[in-house]
């Protein structure tokens, strides 16, 4: 379901939780990581959050979504997260989409699309595979411009900093 066709109340709630995911993305940026943030919501309450940490943790799986899923699973004492929703600032990759389905999330809501690795419609849509045994509802484009701007600013600053670095001989 596209966020534009949702009831106004759902769209407003989605924006609130997406802003919280964006705050997590700023945590990643502060550590020099690609600014992606995520929050897990159950019964209208944020129960877990995460932000990108693969560089600092030396862990290719330390994406924002995975970090949030891990924290939620520990809190709830279950690797399954039925009734939970995950908000993330960037369209999930295939690894994260798979983890979300294994967690049995009720719904995934993302901000900016990812035309290079997006597995929620941009490159492939894992969530629409009928043969899979679990189907998670998907909403994309929530605060897409703001989420996309955050990423563009990060990479712009990174490119500028690299240009200012003197060449090492």
Describe how the helices and strands are arranged.
Layout lengths: L7 H23 L6 E6 L2 E7 L2 H4 L6 H13 L7 E7 L3 H9 L4 E6 L24 E3 L4 H21 L5
Parallel strand pairs: 3-4, 4-5
Antiparallel strand pairs: 1-2, 1-3
Structure description:
With about 170 residues, this protein is an alpha/beta fold. It is about 40% helix and about 15% strand. It contains five helices and five strands, in the order H-E-E-H-H-E-H-E-E-H. A five-stranded mixed β-sheet has the order 2-1-3-4-5. A hairpin with a 2-residue loop joins strand 1 and strand 2. The longest helix is centred in the first third of the chain and has 23 residues, at about 10-30. The model has no long low-confidence stretch (mean pLDDT about 95).
What oligomeric state do the depicted chains represent?
single chain
Provide the spatial order of strands within the biggest beta sheet: 2-1-3-4-5
Taking all Cα atoms into account, the compactness measure Rg is 16 Å
Structural class: alpha/beta
Work out the number of β strands: 5
Into which percentage range does the β-strand content fall? 15-25%
H-E order: HEEHHEHEEH
Can you summarize the main beta sheet?
Answer: 5 strands, mixed
The residue ranges in which pLDDT falls below 50 over 5 or more consecutive positions are none
Q: What is the arithmetic mean of pLDDT?
A: 93
Key features?
169 residues, alpha/beta, 5-stranded mixed β-sheet, 5 helices, 5 strands, 17% strand, globular
């Amino acid at each position: 379901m596209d966020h534009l066709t949702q009831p106004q109340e759902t769209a407003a709630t989605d924006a609130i939780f997406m802003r919280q995911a964006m705050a997590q993305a700023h945590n990643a940026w502060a550590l020099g990581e690609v600014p992606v943030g995520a929050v897990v919501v159950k019964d209208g309450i944020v129960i877990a959050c995460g932000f990108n940490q693969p560089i600092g943790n030396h862990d290719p799986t330390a994406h924002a979504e995975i970090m949030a899923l891990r924290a939620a699973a520990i809190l709830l004492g279950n690797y399954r997260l039925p009734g939970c929703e995950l908000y993330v600032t960037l369209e999930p990759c295939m690894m994260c989409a798979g983890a979300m389905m294994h967690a049995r999330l009720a719904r995934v809501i993302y901000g900016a699309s990812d035309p290079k690795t997006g597995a929620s419609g941009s490159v492939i849509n894992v969530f629409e595979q009928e043969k899979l045994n679990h189907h998670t509802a998907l909403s994309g484009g929530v605060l897409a411009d703001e989420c996309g701007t955050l990423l563009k600013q990060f990479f712009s600053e990174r490119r500028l900093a690299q240009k200012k670095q003197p060449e090492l001989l």
